[in-house]
Structure formats: C-alpha cells, structure tokens
Amino acid sequence: MDIDGVEESSRQVQVRFVTKLKPPYKAPSTTLAIPTNITRLRLSDIVNNILEAGFDDWQYQPFDFLIDGKFLRISLEDFLVAKGISAERVIEIEYVKVVAPRREDISLHDDWVSAVDGSHDGYILTGCYDGLGRIWKDAGICTHVLEGHTGPITSVRVIKLKVESAFNLVATASKDRSLRLWKIDAGELAQPKKTRAFKILKGHNAAVQSIASQPSGEMLCSGSWDCAINLWRANGSDAGGDIVSVKRKKSRGDEEPQSEEEAVSTLVGHTQCVSSLVWPQHETIYSASWDHSIRRWDVETGKDSLKMFCGKAINCLDIGGESSALIAAGGSDPIIRIWDPRKPGKYDPIFQLSGHNSWISSCKWHNKSWFHLVSASYDGKVMIWDLRAAFPLHVIESHKNKVLCADWWKDDSVISGGVDSKLCISSGISVE
C-alpha cells in the first residue's frame, strides 16, 4: 500500500515497520511503499500517522530508525547504497523512541561537583570540592549533608547491602587521603540532616581518587595517587585491618562512635594515579590509571590477570554492555574506547566513539541495555551513545564549564556534575 501525504518520487521501495516496543507503540505489520529520498524525520511522521489511526488519544512521539542494526541518519536511498542493501526486497525498518531528555533540572552546590552516584533509585549521592557529600531525593531536595572530610571529595559510592537494613550505606573518598563510611536513614526530613561518618578508613599516602564496592557490599576498594589499590571491610570488624575507636562528641547527642580502620590488603602494580575502579564480580576488580593501563585483578591472589595499554592517561572506566563484559574507558583525548576482553589475542578497541572535543572525565553503561552509555567531558558536554550508531544520539549542554562526572539514575535519567557547581538531572529519557 502507499502512504497518503508522502510526496511522489521517481523511485520507491517496499518497507515494513517493526519494533520491540509494546502497544500502543506497535504498528501493524504491513508492507508500505515509500520514496527512497525520505529521511528519518519524515519516517517518524509516517509511523505516528499509522499509530494515530489506531488510537484516538495518540500523542506525537518522535522515533529513530534502524536498518540491519544500524541507525539511519541520512536519506534512505543513501543508506541503502552505502550499506549495499538491495532496494528490490522488502526493507525491515525498526523504530525506537528517540533517546533525549524531556526535562532538565539543576541543584546548586557551593563548589565543584566532582562525583555522582545514581545507582539507588531513591536518591542521588554527590561529592563536592567543599568537602561535603550530599544526598538528594530529587532536584533541589537535599536530605543529608555528609560532614567530616578536610579536603575535596573525589569519588562517591552507594554500597548495596545484600541483607535488609534500616539504613543505607554510602562511601566517600577525598583528597584528604581518607575514605569515610556513612549510614543514611531513609526517613522523611523537613530540612537537610547533618551526618557524620561512622567509620574512617586511612592508609593511603596521597589523595584518594576512586572507590568501588564489592557486589555483596562487604568490601570496598580505593585507588590513589600513591599508585596503590587498597581493600577495606565495608561493615563488620571481625577480621582484617586494625580498628581504633574514636570517642563520640557530646555535642552530637546519642550518635554512635566513630572508628578508624586500616586496609585489609593492597594491590600493587600501577605506576601512576589509580583514577578509576569497578568491582563487577565478587573476586574481580578492574582498575584504570594515568600509567595508560587497564588491569583486571584477582582479589584472592592479589595478582593482575589482564593488562591493556591504550597510550593515553585514563580518567574513567566502566564494565557493561553485551553480557556485562565490555570495557569502556576515556581519558586524555576526546575518544571513548571500548574493548571486549573475551576476544583472544591483541587487545584492540572494538569501538572508538568520537564526538567530544576535550578530555573524557566519565563514562557509564546503562545497566539494562547492551548498547547505551553516557559520557562527560571537559568540553562541557554530556553525550548519550548507542553502539549501533557512530555518533552520539543526544548531546546535553546544561553545563557552562567542564563536566567532571556523570551517571544514570532510575533508568530514565542522566545526572552530571561539573565546575559550574551544578548537579544537572536530565530526565524522561527512553532507553529500550
């Protein structure tokens, strides 16, 4: 059948629209004739017209399109020629919702926002150069202020406990060479609650740059400018490092005492700052460093079982994508590189994503998608990527200066912090 309202062309092609979306976004599986000079914007109009015919209260929804697993960003005719696809067969065109935020909100801090963690759906954890951590229930709603560090906070982490607890556990790291652990109650608060750490972890000889937690929540690891990776016990003190009790302050009423604890063990091998850490499996830690290397560590033996060198100082690292096995990293150039360590032989990147024009400060996989990740850069931009496209699907330009950190939140939002002292929440993003 032909589509009404589509301009005539000297050449047409038979297509069928398909989707993994559920009703009301699922169009009938009908073969249509459309002109080959059509672009994705006009394709989106056609799909919306089809869907509107089946639903009286339909509201316009922008779509993106894929052919043979690749995004369409040029005319259909140019795409078919570039990919060597015959126009004589029926072309299956998959449509997905456009990946773009529908709303952007800002929460101001008193200094640079250097770290964010959106892994808990109920709140956002931020770290700031004023030495304070903060818990945000939503944009503009700060419920806890974490006091105690004497230097800028460089990394933050929500620790996911396997057992039910009346509190949430979070960790912060700082240029003051320490880590601190905090218990956060989940109750409603009329104003921000000032909270102090229940445990201080000391053992690094230089600023702590990165932290990660074991999936079970039992252990933490930290990377520092002293080139070492320290392992710590997150809660419980029946084994491991030495513990020193610190007297509670009377002015704090009935708060529990603080304790200071030393590292359980240390992983040695990097020769420059350990800039980023990921602990994806119980016995496996990944680390990135300014010494240009990415390493995979066996926690039990303390040895590195994988070394990859990329020729650039690395600022950020994450594990995700296909089967949660791909390594994404960025550093002292504008390129995000992705490796598959399961492939034998030489470790060349399987993807190199170009779009930023300055150093990459952060990259994070979406935890429910094999294809999507978000990146942040000193160019002031946050970009959302899909591995099926050679370009960013969307560019967020809410920041006015360097962006220092970014993460996903609640599966449909991107959070970011930067030199402009802003926490930006870009929400309403559809990731299918």
Secondary-structure blueprint of this entry?
Blueprint: E1 12-18, E2 31-35, H1 40-54, E3 63-67, E4 70-71, H2 76-83, E5 91-97, E6 103-108, E7 113-117, E8 124-128, E9 133-138, E10 141-147, E11 153-159, E12 167-174, E13 178-185, E14 193-196, E15 199-202, E16 208-213, E17 219-224, E18 229-233, E19 243-246, E20 258-261, E21 265-267, E22 274-281, E23 284-289, E24 293-298, E25 303-309, E26 314-320, E27 326-331, E28 333-339, E29 351-354, E30 360-365, E31 372-377, E32 382-386, E33 394-396, E34 403-409, E35 413-418, E36 422-427
Parallel strand pairs: 1-5, 10-14, 15-20
Antiparallel strand pairs: 1-2, 3-4, 3-5, 6-36, 7-8, 8-9, 9-10, 11-12, 12-13, 13-15, 16-17, 17-18, 18-21, 19-20, 22-23, 23-24, 24-25, 26-27, 27-28, 28-29, 30-31, 31-32, 32-33, 34-35, 35-36
Explain what you see:
- The protein is mainly β and 432 residues long.
- The protein is 5% helix and 47% strand.
- The strands form eight sheets. It has a six-stranded mixed beta sheet, with no helix packed on it. Strands 2-1-5-3-4 form a five-stranded mixed beta sheet, covered by helices on one side.
- β27 and β28 (333-339) form a beta hairpin.
- The model is unreliable at 237-241 and 247-254 (pLDDT under 50).
